[in-house]
Amino acid sequence: MHTISRKPLPENTGAERGHRKLDCAVINYLHRARERIAPDVPYQTVRALFAESAAVYDGAGFHDRTHIQLCVIDQLQIQGVFRLPKWQQTLLGIEQDIYR
Hints:
The protein is of the alpha+beta class and 100 residues long. Helices cover 23% and strands 16% of the residues. It contains 2 helices and 4 strands; from the N terminus they run E-E-H-E-E-H. It is extended and about 45 Å long.
């Protein structure tokens, strides 16, 4: 529950598909706060490393689901998108088309 608005906070759900609604809300909040502090210095992108699941081996910094996410604030700045081909989706056990 949010202490000021008294509304429920969004939740991170869907471990397989990574529905990170709370994470998204936190990043959006930080951007709004930063815009108030430095409105003349806009951010175009944000990137972050996520080390999820179990370590690949004892003492490893790599985890089964380690990945980097890139968030583009201004969609007009997107010049290209990398997508997994169907054969890689199959190899990774992704049963449905993740690009719908």
